[in-house]
Design brief:
The chain is mostly helical. Helices cover 78% and strands 0% of the residues. It has helices at residues 31-48, 52-70, 75-90, 94-112, 117-132, 136-154, 159-174, 178-196, 201-216, 220-238, 243-258, 262-280, 285-300, 304-322, 327-342, 349-364, 369-384, 388-406, 411-426, 430-448, 453-468, 472-490, 495-510, 514-521. α7 runs antiparallel to α8 (178-196), α9 (201-216) runs antiparallel to α10 (220-238) and α13 runs antiparallel to α14 (304-322). It is globular and about 90 Å long. The relative contact order is 0.07.
Length: 522
């Protein structure tokens, strides 16, 4: 049976974004405006180092200088507003970022016109905020308008076109619109290869992003060579100790983690962590992301004592740098809670999950998919304690959030359907469970294809219901198909294949077909 626990993990996929930091007017004679430019450069450096609290007053002072010297509607003021908004977004302060982005956009539309490239950049940044908040319907028209402006002004051979294509593809990916995302990602990659050459760092980023799409689809075989290519390009172009190399290593380690290749994931994850600690310092949010990813490798191997200090250190970094109410803090609390549950330390789990959910709901709102993950974890904890009456409403709320935010055909909705169905099955409500399992299977086959490992999980779930009702003839072809999918996708020696063999063997054993069962257990 599929796990009902959904980890959130951070910092493993890069999507190109264009921060509106590059606009520099002709150097003015006035000393205050020169000071504003210096403050901007200092703030950018601090922000890149993860020193967000130190960067903020510098951005604010630069904004005040420009407003005082140039007036509130000058395009240089829009630059400062955009910079400060981007910092707030990094900190998870979305409500503070939005009015700044909107004001910057209004200034640029008035000063430069609705079709100016700088207006397009501001639209792109506001769309990125909406995407982070899960406001996909608000983000899409802004990304589309931003892309159209770039295509109109810049021509087909400008890398900005590829960046905008990439951002729109990322939005489609978040919505489960994988076929549309793949077209955009491939077009972005081909554009960059044509104008920059096959070994440019922007090509590495585009390769990385296409690989991330394939990972979301469970197409691990397709993802690995793209991740490897991105790593090789960046190592050659930037050197082995560059932070972008660390990002590539993290992505590759995460792929191996998903495939259950823990021995391959661990050394790569450690190298990524070492690069980030050396380049960024021990308290950077990217270091917290590497600690989280390495902790998850340990946790999945049952190496709980090694995972716990990594999760705890990641939490401490995020609380210190981002503040106690940041969504990344909620993620770390979720990870610690699930680890404690795995260890049987139930007394600490509920409080961690409730704090995480309160943070997420406050920061992102009651309808964000990120909240669904935390609510799901709390429901799974209640089931572990046998508190089914408390778990049921949470699973239903998770399902409602995902359906409303992601649409009726998103793979994450299939996860939510499976979790509620598993509860119904535990309660003996087999007809209701089977209907939900079937809907989840339909979603996964449509979104991920018939040979995806998640499809095998849905087939197995349906088989467990059939077996529980002694419908052995219905269960057997489901289990056989699940086994075949897993062997093809993951190889014959993967742990998931062993589980599938055990499930089929248990079915034969339930029918006293011991000769058929015995070779499957070996």
């Amino acid at each position: 049976m599929e796990s009902r626990i959904l980890h959130g993990y951070a910092g493993v996929l890069l999507f190109v974004s264009t921060l509106f930091l590059a606009y520099c007017p002709a150097r003015p004679a006035e000393a205050p405006l020169a000071e504003a430019e210096i403050l901007d450069r200092q703030a950018v450096a601090l922000q890149q180092q993860g020193h967000y609290a130190d960067a903020e007053p510098l951005y604010e002072r630069a904004l005040a200088i420009r407003e005082g010297a140039l007036g509130p509607e000058h395009r240089a003021v829009a630059v400062s507003l955009d910079n400060l908004a981007a910092l707030y977004q990094k900190e998870g302060r979305y409500a503070d970022a939005e009015p700044l982005y909107k004001r910057a956009l209004a200034i640029l539309e008035k000063a430069l016109g609705p079709d100016h490239p700088d207006t397009g950049t501001c639209l792109n940044n506001l769309a990125g905020l909406y995407r982070a908040e899960g406001r996909y319907a608000d983000a899409e028209p802004l990304y589309e308008r931003s892309l159209a402006i770039a295509e109109k002004n810049l021509g087909p051979d400008d890398p900005i076109i590829a960046i905008r294509l990439n951002n729109l593809a990322g939005l489609y990916k978040d919505q489960g619109r994988y076929a549309e995302a793949e077209v955009k990602y491939k077009l972005a990659l081909a554009t960059l290869e044509r104008i920059r050459g096959a070994n440019d760092v922007t090509v590495a980023t585009a390769s990385n992003n296409l690989a991330g799409l394939y990972v979301a689809q469970g197409r691990y075989i397709d993802a690995e060579p793209l991740y490897q290519r991105a790593l090789e390009i960046n190592e050659q172009a930037l050197g082995p100790d560059h932070v972008d190399v660390a990002r590539n290593l993290s992505n590759l380690a995460t792929l191996y983690w998903l495939e259950g290749r823990y021995a391959d994931a661990e050394p790569i994850g450690k190298r990524a962590l070492a690069i980030r600690e050396k380049a960024l310092g021990p308290d950077h949010p990217d270091v917290a992301a590497s600690l989280t990813n390495l902790g998850m490798v340990y946790e999945n191997q049952g190496r709980y004592a090694e995972a716990e200090p990594l999760y705890e250190r990641a939490l401490a970094i995020r609380e210190k740098v981002l503040g106690p109410d940041n969504p990344d803090v909620a993620e770390s609390l979720n990870n610690l809670a699930v680890l404690h549950q795995d260890q049987g330390r139930y007394g600490e789990v509920e409080a961690l999950l409730q704090r995480a959910n309160a943070i997420t709901e406050k920061a992102l709102g009651p309808g964000h998919p990120g909240l669904a993950i935390g609510l799901n974890n709390l429901a799974a904890f209640y089931i572990a304690e046998g508190r089914y009456t408390e778990a049921g409403p949470l699973f239903k709320r998770v399902l409602a959030i995902d359906e409303n935010a992601l649409g009726p055909d998103h793979p994450d909705l299939a996860n939510s359907l499976n979790n509620l169905a598993s509860l119904y099955q535990d309660e003996g409500r087999f007809a209701e469970a089977e209907a939900l399992f079937k809907r989840a299977l339909t979603i996964r086959e449509k979104a991920l294809g018939p040979d995806n490992p998640d499809v095998a999980g849905s087939l197995n779930n349906l088989a467990t219901v059939a077996k529980a009702e002694d419908r052995y003839a219905d269960a057997e072809p489901l289990l056989k198909r699940a086994r075949a999918i897993l062997e093809k996708a993951l190889g014959p020696d993967h742990l998931a294949v062993a589980t599938a063999l055990d499930n089929l063997g248990a079915l034969y054993e339930a029918q006293s077909l011991y000769e058929e069962a015995e070779p499957l257990y070996k």
